[in-house]
Amino acid sequence: MSTVRVEPGGPLKGELTAPSDKSISHRIALLGAMAGEPVRVHNYLDAADTRSTLSAVRALGARVEEHAPGELVIHGVGLRGARPPGGPIDVGNAGTLMRLLPGWLAAQEGRSFTLDGDESIRRRPVDRVAEPLRRMGARIEAREGRLPPFTIHGERLRPIAYELPVASAQVKSCILLAGLGAEGETTVIEPEPSRDHTERLLARAGVLLRRAGPVLGVTGTGELRLPGELTVPADLSSAAFAIAAAILVPGSRLLVRDCGVNWTRTGFLQIVRRMGASVVADLELPPTGGAIPADEPVSDVEVAAGPLCGTVVEPHEVPLAIDELALVGLLGCFADGETVVRGAQELRVKESDRIAAVVDGLNGLGGDLEATADGFVVRGVGGLRGGRIASGGDHRTAMLGAVAGLASREGVEVAGMDAAAVSYPGFLDDLARLR
Ligand code: S3P
């Protein structure tokens, strides 16, 4: 475990190209493995989480050629062609892999697959995907009924109508993937919109999809036909750390190049704008009616430092900013007044309990935060002293600590900084380049 000290310093200036989108990379690797024809992928995320997905699809029989970092050709095994590997599939730290892959595997009639992962994965519940998959006909056994390692016994699936108990793109995507292998239309009802990358990729593959308000329907198919080439845009969730640093460190001016701005991912930018931050970008608007966009929009994002005021993040905004809420907590420490995050109980089952991580972590640096059952309250204290924060093996907490260090008065020591490699291996180098 590496400990790194991040000192406060001068403004961040210059341009950043963020790493490729993690969510989209996972989905392209999985759909590529499920497809009947090879797909060429540009800009696949080269990080620990998405390498786990490539290992998983290889273990299931797909062939992945890596021509250069991020440049792949995936030769899939087809929608019903997953081969059971000799032992458990190791998902590493990747919650998205753990929750999406069972959707595909559930339709592999007569074959069984066991999924396991690291210490953090073993604490993350899988009952939320096991329940709908069981209703579709799959048999699933999990440790203590809800934790990994868990085994999926593939069956002939029947379509279901499923109302998601929480707005989760992972659970929604799992059911959509299972729906591809079922006969007829499977529907998912979302309490609030969540990231829609799976839908966009399925739309590009010509799958029959239907959206009517909160209802999303997918019709099963014999084979999946992806376009021959797919390109992954840069990840706004990764860029968000440098964006937050540029907002906080006086005199900063940052240009993030060609970043993904799918409207289901830009909640953080809307929240910081409301807090008074200067953010110029060509953000996608939510589509009207039942349209499902097929492309992933990109835009430059220009950010400048400035004063902030507190805000209230309402439950419907939470899925649109789920991985950036810890950064909202950090910004709240520097804002005038109170910042409140509500309806974010999902944060308790991320790579760590992120409500505890943000509240305890930032309080340890001089913040004034209070945990609530479904979020947190931050009282602005005009800045942070600094000190020590532990990542707890969570990549986003590690990067939060580093940004806090840049903006603090005395610097921050981040224990377990190496966790950042899960989504953003070059994070500290990129920050150093901008200073
Ligand atoms: C993800 C969805 C979110 C997010 C995670 C990635 C995805 O999880 O927190 O980092 O790629 O679908 P939930 O959908 O479970 O909230």
Number of alpha- plus pi-helical segments: 12
Return the CATH topology of the largest domain.
UDP-n-acetylglucosamine1-carboxyvinyl-transferase, Chain
Q: Quick one: CATH class of the largest domain?
A: Alpha Beta
Global Rg: 21 Å
Poorly predicted runs: none
Task: Classify the secondary structure makeup into a structural class.
Answer: alpha/beta
Helix content: 25-40%
CATH superfamily of the largest domain: Enolpyruvate transferase domain
Q: Determine the mean pLDDT.
A: 97
Morphology call: globular
Q: Which CATH architecture of the largest domain? A: Alpha-beta prism
Estimated share of beta-strand residues? 15-25%
The assembly state of the depicted protein chains is single chain
Provide the spatial order of strands within the biggest beta sheet. 2-15-17-16
Terminal Cα separation, in Å?
25 Å
Number of strands: 23
Bound molecules: shikimate-3-phosphate
Count of discrete structural domains:
2
Biggest pleated sheet:
4 strands, mixed
